[in-house]
Amino acid sequence: MATATHIPIEQYLKTSYEPDAEFVDGEIEERNVGEYDHNAVQKAILLWFARHEKEWGIRCIQEQRTRLGPNRVRIPDVSVFSRELPVEQVFTRPQLVAIEVLSPEDRHSRMQERIDDYRAFRISNIWVVDPAKRIGWDCSDGNWTRKDRFGIAATPAYLDLKEMFAQLEEAER
Questions:
Q1: Strands 97-101 and 125-130
Q2: Can you give the residue ranges of every domain in the chain?
Q3: By CB distance 3.0 to 4.6 Å, which of 40, 91, 157, 170 could disulfide with 66?
Q4: What 3 state SS string does 60-120 have?
């Protein structure tokens, strides 16, 4: 039976991983990334928000390390945060939205751990998008609630999956 090697968070934060990996309780955790459908949907979500950054008072970024606590760093596929927050090289304050795009290898239990971590960090909007089924869930309250349209309270910002997938199809032609 293999044993995990524990490293201090300071070492993790100074190390580059390809692809980037998460840090959970002293251990490096690989992320499921790299497949075309996952990447195309991640890009479409990022572009959706990028088109409206100034208008909606937001910034968006892909695969940004987020330090959730002293021993935990997660990397949401897409993060949306208020323009009022200072830019940090590693987020230490909750973003407005953490979005995860499912890969075929993702398991519900592992995704639920990520959602629970985001909730404990007080990220108020946690969304999961499935590129294969072209559906999404709002997991902000810990439950998986099917949604076609997501909104960010007290802002004009939103994500309409049907419209976004239509734009993605158009771009793919």
A1: parallel
A2: 32-172
A3: 91
A4: EEECCCEEEECCEEECCCEEEEECCCCCCCCECCCCCEEEEECCCCCCHHHHHHHHHHHHH
Q: How far apart are CA 20 and CA 106, in angstroms?
A: 16
Instruction: Report whether pLDDT(3) > 60.
Output: no
Q: How confident is the model over 163-173, as pLDDT tens digits?
A: 999 999 998 88
79, 64 in Cβ contact below 8 A? Answer: yes
* pLDDT tens per residue across span 32-66: 776 899 999 999 999 999 999 999 999 999 999 99
Nearest to 31 by CA among 110, 89, 119, 88: 110
Ordered DSSP codes for 2-23: --PPP--HHHHHT---SS--EE
First-last CA distance in the chain: 49
Q: Which residue has the tokens 């049907």?
A: 162
Tell me which residue of 72, 82, 165 sits closest to 121, measured CA to CA.
72
